[in-house]
Design brief:
This protein has 130 residues and is α/β, with parallel strands linked by helices. The protein has seven helices and five strands. The protein has a single domain, classed as 3-Layer(aba) Sandwich (Rossmann fold), CATH 3.40.50.1010. The two termini are 17 Å apart.
Length: 130
């Protein structure tokens, strides 16, 4: 059994049945042996980007993201002060606070971060991209 933490785009692709979500990743996410988590940082990212007009297609999800996490059969992962400490302390150029938080959560919680964002390999975490 693996503990998977979905990057925000992976969660949205799953919900929208987007063809960009590769078959291999779909298989791992759908595998009932795996525990699948969505971070509260992703909830923040979705609602923020929707508010700013960057995710107009996510209107229904942005209004009730926790409900959509539950409907998908996933678990919510709260942000802790330990997560925040690590995300803020990594000495690297990557500036995206959402990516930094997801990477920190994956590291501390010993999860596999599911993402096709190649920049995340900068972080010392296991990334599943296919």
């Amino acid at each position: 059994m693996k503990k998977l933490l979905l990057d925000t785009h992976i969660f949205l692709w799953w919900l929208f049945d987007d063809p960009k979500l590769q078959r291999g990743l779909r298989k791992h996410i759908a595998d009932i042996e795996n525990e699948v988590f969505v971070s509260s940082a992703s909830v923040w990212e979705i609602t923020t980007k929707f508010r700013l007009g960057k995710l107009p297609e996510a209107q229904l999800v942005a209004k009730k993201t926790p409900l959509w996490i539950e409907k998908a059969g996933f678990k919510s992962l709260s942000v802790t002060s330990d997560h925040a400490q690590l995300a803020g302390s990594w000495d690297m150029e990557h500036k995206d606070p959402f990516d930094r938080m997801l990477a920190a959560q994956a590291k501390i919680e010993k999860m596999v971060l599911v993402s096709v964002d190649e920049i995340l390999v900068q972080f010392p975490v296991q990334v599943m991209d296919s």
